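Here is an idea for our session: we take a single protein and study its fold together. Which protein we use is up to you, so please pick one and set it down. Once you have written the record down, we can walk along the chain together:
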Amino acid sequence: MTSTRKPAPFGRTLCAMITPFTEAGALDLAGARRLAARLVAEGCDGLVLNGTTGESPTTTGEEKAELVAAVREAVGDRATLVTGVGTADTRHTVELALAAQKAGADGVLVVTPYYSRPPQDAVAAHFLEVADASALPVMLYDIPGRTGTRIEPDTMIRLAEHPRIVAVKDCSYDFLGTQKVLARTELAYYAGCDEHVLALYAVGAAGCVSTVANAVPAHIAAILDAFDAGDTARAAELQLAVTPFIEAMMNAGLPGTVTAKALLSRLGLPAGPPRTPLLPADRETTDELQALYEALTAS
């Protein structure tokens, strides 16, 4: 059977990596190196740093660049590194993109400008200016639930004409719109919602950017491995098996950053507390996450 899957410019199984902090709230670069090395060893061929899960709103530009450089040192060329540079300010986003290039990133993740709610022509102009500013390929980040603004499918199709706009992290919850763009462009789509990993891959996505992979990278990779091997029943079984864990981590009233950090800390892995305004998960939540993790990894 001939595959129609588009090339995966940033790898296939990407983790939306948390940003480890010390208990005092400082950037934990040694912990970041350790965590990144574990994720790559257990199945991730790409890492997304400084994204939503990486607490990008509460880290400085200097910290973002330091994190990229430290993780690059840890993983070398064994994984691609995409780093979040999106802000509500086009000029600042350009500055961060240029800094990411100097720090050693392979690509940039650019979220739709938030709060000001720009119309679609302004959304497109923002992305084009960022794409023109550096030599790095761009992954658009469509997450209207956080930004308040969609990248509409027609805008996405227009942006796909730019040679450096090559991918999309899709958190739109618009499966029809996603399929429209997949059918009409060469953009590489990455499922940004863990419950969509298999569904989006089945219609031609390049892979995923998974928050849950912080804890279970091998399981997320195995879903895509099974599908690639033609064992769609096994792929579905693996996706359904991780569903209760996804629900607990991503849909239980707390951001994935908070739940991922709580579980990783419980497992003795680098994490630390989230930065305010986020607060740590309580013990009951962490106990539930650990129980689901142990059930999943024991199966």
Observations:
- The chain is about 45% helix and 10% strand.
